[in-house]
Structures are given as structure tokens and as C-alpha cells.
Amino acid sequence: MRGSLLGSLLELKNFAGALPSRLNRIMDTAANAELELPVRVVDANLMLEGFQKVANRIASGIILAALIIGAALLMRIDTTFRLFGYPGFAILCFVAAAAGGCWLLLSIVVQDRRKGKRTTLRVR
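Predicted structure:
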């Protein structure tokens, strides 16, 4: 047991002694844009398509949130143009946000159902 412990300590000492030169080599290759990391992806196109869907949905949600916040801020401005007793432009922004939210939800449901049918067809 003592011999294996000493052997492990000796290996650790050798590793620690060579570490600065290894780190220098890694930093040099990274600085020269020569560092390559091979990555194996099962289906890169499918992953990219998924990331793009997520990014589009997040962007749509941010735009809808901005419409809602902008409409809420516009509610405090008194104007002559009114709809349902509220400032007209603010109500139009709320209606646009509601329509966009419904469209976003509908498109998500339709795309997910299509995707589900496609995957079940592939499996058979």
C-alpha cells in the first residue's frame, strides 16, 4: 500500500511539473487559432432546427411582451381617440399583442403536431 501511494505521489509530481509547459502549448494554439475540438453530433441539422425554433419563439415572446408593456404605459396618456373608454392606440397594441400571442401558440401547436406525425412515420 505504501508503494502504491508513493508511486501515485511520484506520478502527481511529474504531472504537476509538466503542467506549465502543457498549458503554454494549449494557450499558444488557442492564441494562434489552431485549437480544434472534434465534436460528434448525431444529427446536427435537427439540433440546429430545434435551436432556431427556440430562438424564434423567444424573439416572438419578447416582441409580444414589449407590445404589452408599451400598451400598458400608453394607458396613462389621455387622448381624444378612445376605444371602449380606453386610449385607442393602447387598446390597438393590446389587440395586436393578443393576436400575436394566439398566432404564436397556434403555430407552436401545429408545428409540434406535424413534428410528432413526422417522427411516428419515420419510426415505422
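Summary: Confidence is low (pLDDT under 50) at residues 120-124.
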